[in-house]
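Issue: ligand-bound run for flavin-adenine dinucleotide - logging full I/O for the record.

Environment: standard queue, default settings, no custom constraints.

Inputs:
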Amino acid sequence: FEAPSRQRGVAIPQGISKVKFFEVLNELRYEIGEEWVELNDKELKGGWYMEHPNTHDMMNILDAEELVASAVVYPGDVEDVQKIVGWANTWRIPLFPISMGRNFGYGGAAPRVRGSVTVDLGKRMNKILSIDPDDYTCLVEPGVSYYALYEELKKRGYDHMWIDTPDLGGGSVLGNALDRGVGYTPYGDHWSVHSGLEVVLPTGEVLRTGMGALPGSNTWQTFPYGFGPYSDGIFSQSNFGIVTKMGMALMPNPGGYESFMYTFPKEEDLAPLMEIIRPLRISNILENVAQLRHCLQTIAVRGQPRSKYFSGRGPIPEEIIHEEMKKTPLGDCTWVYYGMSYGPPHIRKYKLDVVHQEFLKIPGARRIDPSTLPADEYFWSRDKIAAGIPDLEELLWVNWMPNGSHIAFSPIAPIRGIDATKLYSLARKRHDEAGIDLMPAFCVGLREMHLIVEIVFDSSDISMRRKADRCLRDMIDDAAKLGYGEYRTHLVLMDQVAGTYNWNGNALMRFNERLKDALDPNGILAPGRCGIWPERYRGRGWEI
Amino acid sequence: FEAPSRQRGVAIPQGISKVKFFEVLNELRYEIGEEWVELNDKELKGGWYMEHPNTHDMMNILDAEELVASAVVYPGDVEDVQKIVGWANTWRIPLFPISMGRNFGYGGAAPRVRGSVTVDLGKRMNKILSIDPDDYTCLVEPGVSYYALYEELKKRGYDHMWIDTPDLGGGSVLGNALDRGVGYTPYGDHWSVHSGLEVVLPTGEVLRTGMGALPGSNTWQTFPYGFGPYSDGIFSQSNFGIVTKMGMALMPNPGGYESFMYTFPKEEDLAPLMEIIRPLRISNILENVAQLRHCLQTIAVRGQPRSKYFSGRGPIPEEIIHEEMKKTPLGDCTWVYYGMSYGPPHIRKYKLDVVHQEFLKIPGARRIDPSTLPADEYFWSRDKIAAGIPDLEELLWVNWMPNGSHIAFSPIAPIRGIDATKLYSLARKRHDEAGIDLMPAFCVGLREMHLIVEIVFDSSDISMRRKADRCLRDMIDDAAKLGYGEYRTHLVLMDQVAGTYNWNGNALMRFNERLKDALDPNGILAPGRCGIWPERYRGRGWEI
Ligand SMILES: Cc1cc2nc3c(=O)[nH]c(=O)nc-3n(C[C@H](O)[C@H](O)[C@H](O)COP(=O)(O)OP(=O)(O)OC[C@H]3O[C@@H](n4cnc5c(N)ncnc54)[C@H](O)[C@@H]3O)c2cc1C
Ligand SMILES: Cc1cc2nc3c(=O)[nH]c(=O)nc-3n(C[C@H](O)[C@H](O)[C@H](O)COP(=O)(O)OP(=O)(O)OC[C@H]3O[C@@H](n4cnc5c(N)ncnc54)[C@H](O)[C@@H]3O)c2cc1C
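Outputs:
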């Protein structure tokens, strides 16, 4: 990554002078400790996934100096978080909490509002507070990564429990669940398997949800709902509170597992394949959040730059893709299905036989025998992930471009041929217009699928950034017209995406604003996150 | 049921004169239609489950005239609901929405505040708006019962989809889920399988949650979360909105099923059995929300009055219970486990063999061969329910007492021997003190269990009502001291139960009140439900 030198100096929050801001930062230093407050006056450095900056999005799609923090504060405990919130209310300074800040594709560690003070929770609040080997649950702080949780289970010899990890294992278990991220075991819907939050409200009070509200409760991590309104949901994808603890279910070791891979030759196989997948997935014959990927991603994830294959303008031609595929152990194809079956051998066989029979209904479908694949084949990374073993290999497709950055288009769709086709076509059209390579992956949930289209771009290339931005915004609008909405989005697209959820005169957003104003009267917490602006910011042109 | 004659006349809402109230009721008649507004000036009749009154709790634990409605209104559509809400705001009249009002054990159809206008949504808003045979989902209005949904599936020939039903099939699919009720197939956690709500806010706006906020969305019933804060949870067990539509997942027909029953001889078997159940349940070898019942409930559910077995004072003696059990096809025992295994025969066998081997570790455990059981044995009712077939047989234990009423104590506990024992002991102690028969059923969720203790009482017997009330309140306090909290409770116990969720100076309740005041500034919607009082009511002694 190139480190562009800074033109604009320290990003001072709006409504406070630079001098005053420096002064009140000293107050914060006094409260939290000198060494735990950092002014962001250095170069905006890049990095790589595991050693990333926490002051901005190193994969910036806008100008590098747009979404930057004024300072970073590192609370050591819940009381510190309360103090920070109190301080922010006093001086009306926007805070932006992150757990580990590895939210790449969706904004990384950057705040939505330039000059926010980033609350980096993960650095010091990184304890695994409990792992319960009988209940199969854990309680974690924001700084616990999938790697850390996995290693702790191994260390304690808890082989009877699995974690669920997204494609990359370096993220925060808590932060990812709050953003409603997904992994690839049967416990892949992270939000649905969490149980219990501890939250610092924007006004400073500390709350425990679910059974955690009962002093001495013994079921905080086993029963999510508690009594009365079940409030956890409003703390996900929101700016209503800072989450300081989260409970989560761990998956029982299924007693065996086995990855499988099928390839399908033609683009048009997508639709009939989806019709086959849907009933198998709903009835749990297909058991995990599997991925159906376009073969170009299979090429990209080998880690070589695009220039190795093609140096022309516009999307890489079909012929080249298929020529390259022929050279891989998979052979030529257009779609690759990565799945896993769980349980003892005879139980797996029952399911795998059904899958095989159904998948082979697509002419030219092939099962790739894993024993024929070399150890460095990407298949083995998916094998680890579907078994809950953290990995980083997925990062390799970021190398597709120099200064490889990426940003995601992530609409939700029914698991249907017609919907897969419509989304694929609109993405294809907009990618072609922008001259961008299309690498879609359909992640099949239970009754819906998340289509994940990652645009890989060179963040030092302004014109490429603009094209990527245009392409994304067009896809979001096109999709909304057809009834598809994003499940999650990048900071810079939040206003647009939130705007598509506008049924009945924006009833949902007006409701969210009502909650925001009630919970955060001074509008200090993550203004603009998920399109929710506090009263103080509304109607002042903050939307992008 | 006896119908006590009314002493107190029509229950006029507080803060409005009787004359004025009658006047504004005419306004409501004008808005909604003459025939759809009923003054509650008749006798407070009893009824039975399927033909129950909607003006009060026919199973009253307090005086029959305590929790009664002033009037009932029947909206025909969402606009009607908005009009009713508008009217209530104008005149500051408390509303109490019910779907079908069969919430027996938890308050039936009664409002929490005497004189509320009951909004009976179910009578006219009772359409199944869609059943999707590909996605395995449905969209229902408040008045759709389990029976109605089941019959519609049969009518359409959708044998590939199952519903999940609680013990009684006459309740509302939507109302039960909103109260976070449970059923007994693998889809038994109703809240967790719902997807999408339409809500009329206390201020009258209509909102759609999840993907429903995206106009023309095609995934409202398949992807629950949508974009931004996931707000559904705060509309469950709350008084923040009136829900007019709800989506829900339907279970795929598992391709076979098989009920099984085990009996265990001794009271002390409870603890080791729970230790056996927990890992089997978490790993889905035990697949449904099964029930472990005390044998007295097995006797009671035969439908004969207690007086047939025992006419003395105090709890029915152990010896009599066991003498009676000997006469049943189950033979003598103390605990009965009702479970079901799903899938094709060889898959079931695999699971059932594990269960058998584990359960038989309890000395004297016996598997009861279903083929030895007569057709009217209660086992076959559980068999239906675990296969998603609505039933009513469970009602029979209500006959235990004349004017048979019941009220539930429903704490959540870890699935552990020690916890089962602690809860059982405290319930036993308090029942003995009150001279009440103890009939506990442990409903094992996934990582926790709902203990359901139903106290059956004669609602015409004031002293028995008082004893039941005392017993319940003591159990709630005892349980809270040990870290157990209720998952749901009766209207009259809501303040007490909410009071046990008081961590950090009642942080959760203060948060709920903040939301309540923001969403319902005039405090018109179900004041006091789940212990949440709007500003206008607080500090005025409404708690009971
Ligand atoms: C190659 C690649 C593959 C990826 N694959 C996946 C995938 O398979 N699945 C997936 O889900 N994601 C995926 N991602 C996206 C991302 O890397 C992960 O979701 C990652 O886990 C998120 O970063 P984090 O956990 O450090 O969260 P953070 O960045 O710490 O949190 C995410 C956001 O949540 C909010 N937040 C975090 N913590 C708190 C808190 N304590 N209180 C209040 N708000 C908070 C903040 O707004 C923050 O911006 C992928 C990214 C890359 C680069
Ligand atoms: C013998 C017996 C066995 C039982 N077994 C079970 C069981 O196994 N599982 C179980 O869950 N329950 C059980 N119950 C309790 C009860 O019968 C069911 O839960 C029943 O489904 C609830 O009644 P209902 O569906 O008519 O809901 P309603 O009474 O209509 O709704 C329940 C409450 O939710 C709120 N509400 C309802 N609709 C709305 C709305 N549209 N908007 C806002 N708020 C609303 C109201 O406060 C209402 O009081 C049992 C009861 C008996 C008598």
